[in-house]
Amino acid sequence: MLTWFDEHPGGTDALLGALALVLFGTADFVRDGASAALITVIFAVAIVFWRRMPGLGLAIAWIGALVQIATVDGLLVGDLLILGVVFATGFSQSRPVRWAGVWSSIIGGGVAGARLVLYAPTYGDGELIPTDPLYRGVYFVVISGVIAAALALFYTLGVVVRIRRATAATRSERERERIVAEATLTQERERALLSREMHDLVGHALAVVIAQSDGARYAKLSDPNAETAALETINRTARSALDDVHELLLVLREPSGGGREAPGAADLDLLLASVREAGLSVSLIESSTRVPMSAAHELTLYRVLQESLTNAIKHGGRGTNVEVALDWQREAVVFRVLTTETGPHSTPIVVPEPAKKTPGQGLIGMHERMRLLGGTVYAGPLPAGAPGFLVEGRLPFNAPESAR
Length: 404
What we know:
The protein is of the alpha+beta class. It contains 12 helices and 5 strands. It has 2 domains: 2-179, no CATH class; 265-404, Heat Shock Protein 90 (2-Layer Sandwich).
């Protein structure tokens, strides 16, 4: 029912005018006759236009007021409708209409005071308005001020309501913009997450596949079984990557759906084994005891080490020595991946100038993962021009009390 009034403002204003006519028109007809009731009809018509055309409503109200001054002595009950018309001028968005409301309040107070005091009829000895010019002038000022103040009060109420609505609309628009911005940011984060995960999953698998295929070509002449072993590793690596991509897409399509557990520190042995199968010499040095971490920390550690080993495969080649060190401290895990060339078939690990200025997607994703969890990581060539590449970082975590 209430929604109908919001959706049909014209019909609502017409009903308001009709209700005002019935209430105030009946009272004025009983009190002062048909002429007073006709004036109230004019004021009721002015109320009909208070929201859509407040300027026209004010003009109609002035017509009714002038007719009242010329034909009726004293005030009418319908004069209360003038307050609603003046309220509408303060509520209007039009500056000329608002100024018309201000001047109407001032001039209307003076005209009403003059009609009620200066040009009031004589009532004899019992009249309430004194005949002395000085006192009559004081009465005129007081009554005019009271009427003008009443009109100004309702005009001010209209201004206040208009400002509050404008403020609410502005706040609502800002809230809408904030929601849109947050939604856009969320989409960008999801897109970046998908890009990082796909890069880590597919990049490592392709690096192992390429290394195995290259190694099998050179080794099959001296070792006939090398090609078969390489094909088995390629098949296993490709299937594992395909399963990981399938799980990733399943999580993106159905966030609440179940899936395989994300890789973590417990899967590092399998990761190192895949790198060894690609022809690299990998060693793991682990100090202290592994501390349970959250799934996000586990995944970040795994992905950073995976990206480091993938780069070792791509840039180092077969025979490259990779040393992985993990130091489980009280509140953080410190890791280091040192890649050096030792074998005769290893490719020199050189970071070209463009790569130094613009890191690849893998290095960017590595830094983003660590930054999101408050960690730090360095990835770059060894100092003093030594051949090799170093990745080291520190990933803080809140270890359980029992583990500490």
